[in-house]
UniProtKB/TrEMBL annotation, chain A:
It comes from Gallus gallus (Chicken). InterPro entries: Aminotrans_II_pyridoxalP_BS, Aminotransferase_I/II_large, AON_synthase_class-II, PyrdxlP-dep_Trfase, PyrdxlP-dep_Trfase_major, PyrdxlP-dep_Trfase_small. Residues 118-476 form the Aminotransferase class I/classII large domain. It holds the Pfam family Aminotran_1_2. CDD domains: KBL_like. One of its GO terms (biological process) is sphingolipid metabolic process. This is serine C-palmitoyltransferase. Gene3D superfamilies: Aspartate Aminotransferase, domain 1 (3.90.1150.10), Type I PLP-dependent aspartate aminotransferase-like (Major domain) (3.40.640.10). GO terms for molecular function: pyridoxal phosphate binding; serine C-palmitoyltransferase activity. It comes from the Eukaryota. The gene is SPTLC3.
UniProtKB/TrEMBL annotation, chain B:
This is Serine palmitoyltransferase small subunit B. Its main location: endoplasmic reticulum. It comes from Gallus gallus. It is found in: Endoplasmic reticulum membrane. Pathway: Lipid metabolism; sphingolipid metabolism; Sphingolipid metabolism. Component of the serine palmitoyltransferase multisubunit enzyme (SPT) that catalyzes the initial and rate-limiting step in sphingolipid biosynthesis by condensing L-serine and activated acyl-CoA (most commonly palmitoyl-CoA) to form long-chain bases. The SPT complex is composed of SPTLC1, SPTLC2 or SPTLC3 and SPTSSA or SPTSSB. Within this complex, the heterodimer consisting of SPTLC1 and SPTLC2/SPTLC3 forms the catalytic core. Within the SPT complex, SPTSSB stimulates the catalytic activity and plays a role in substrate specificity.
Amino acid sequence: MELSAKKTFIEHFEQAPMYVAVLTFVGFGVGTVFGYLRDFMRAWGLEKRNVAQEREQQKDFVPLYQDFENFYTRNLYVRIRDNWNRPICSVPGPQFDLMERVTDDYNWTFRFTGRTIKNVINMGSYNYLGFAETDPNALKTVAKELQRYGTGICSTRQEMGTLDKHVELENLVAKFLGVEDAMVFGMGFATNSMNIPALVGKGCLILSDELNHTSLVLGARLSGATIRIFKHNNMQSLEKLLRDAIVYGQPRSRRAWRKIIILVEGIYSMEGSIVRLPEIVSLKNKYKAYLYLDEAHSIGAVGATGRGVVEYFGMNPNDVDVLMGTFTKSFGAAGGYIAGKKGLVDFLRTHSHSAVYATSMCPPVAEQIIRAMKCLMGLDGTTQGKLRQLGKNTRYFRRRLHEMGFIIYGNDDSPVVPLLLYMPGKIGAFARRMLEKNIGVVVVGFPATPITESRARFCVSAAHTREMLDTVLNALDELGDFLHLKYSRYSKSSHPELYEETRFEFED
Amino acid sequence: MDIKSMKNYLYWLYCQFELITCSYLMEPWEKVLFYTFNVSMLVMVAYTAYIFFPVHISTAFQFCLHLFGSQHENTVSVVK
């Protein structure tokens, strides 16, 4: 099968006009002043204290809650806390049901009214291919495996927790990615944090991207290796670090590093940017380093047949030393995998903390992944539709948002779309008003993003129909005018009807 | 209706002010405090401008006159 590689790499990281930055700081300034006022009132007993604080006996010890993060949490985050941790009560498909929740004391406590808000359009779940479904026909094999194996494994991989389902799944994953062998784990976060310490240790060097996920950072810190950070997706920064590492070696002894490993992700979920894989592979070959690629968001979502960024760039999977990914996003299941050469995977089977101590993946979930992967590989005949639909939806959504004049970050092909909001007051207003229009969005602020760049993050799914996307886009248009969010200085026009859709067909 | 669209525009401007200065997030008593502070600052600035505006204008006018006056004398002496 001819796989065509993308030749153009278009990413946008537009900067907002200067007045936006100034006004954002004004907003944070006012919030900080009122934060100090409220803290003063709480300390002097003029106001009831709902916050965490030290006990009487600890008042002479080092203060626990005086740093900026705690100040920010109790004075700014709590005011808009009702937009996060909202409980849902249905499958997170393209539409879902939300439990209605009200607060009587400005977000310190919540209570449920007992009603559910039905059919809220879901723009926040990582349901890229639409496998989060409850259709009994689709889940026939999963139900059968549930009858056969039950739900629990009650053991770890090395004791009695390796089932024939795991072996079948691992062979399928290896075949899907085009590598020699793979190993699956029960939890995606734990795959990173428990396996990086098995691969590197003291005396090794980790070169990690600035915006890597917490699981990679935690795994790197747990390993005890030296960590150096390079600027996000910046190859000059990475090359400089590599050259310095090879020329100067370890800090005091000047010996060569035992291993140099580069940690990157396929799609970065907060920026929507795709890693520059060809340049990284050429750098790694030149300087003899190893590459660890975390494809949590990109497996199943990019590439002509869904095999991730390796296929997106038309490269050989053997170029990447360790391919890691999760099944949580595109496959509608839970868990992660590590794939690569057989020697690597055999080493991990014996030395990984996950293999020795963590419970293995449960059989119905493994069967869900098998069915989703078979669907993607075409062994069922029902697939190519999903990827093509995801590509079309992504391009349509991004194009319309650009035309409306919003600032969007990231690559044109990534299904993760961050829309910049900047000001702290607008975060709460945006999420609440979108919920009033029956659309559920995820807004992100500090500390997950830089303090001045808060954003709303949309995850486009193959299960979204054109009508749903149009509803969302019209609501965004209206809200963008009301909240004044259209900061882009490069938008094409404000009349999208003049642009015909047929010119932007997804090409294989 | 010009009045209606004017009112809508003013309401929209007020909403923008609320969002930018985070007063959208404040509890009612905090909003009262914040607006009182802002309004009192504005009133003070306006009052100061009202008191000092005529004095400043006349001083500036006299200064300019002095500048142009001395120049006029110089050019006249050269021509002579």
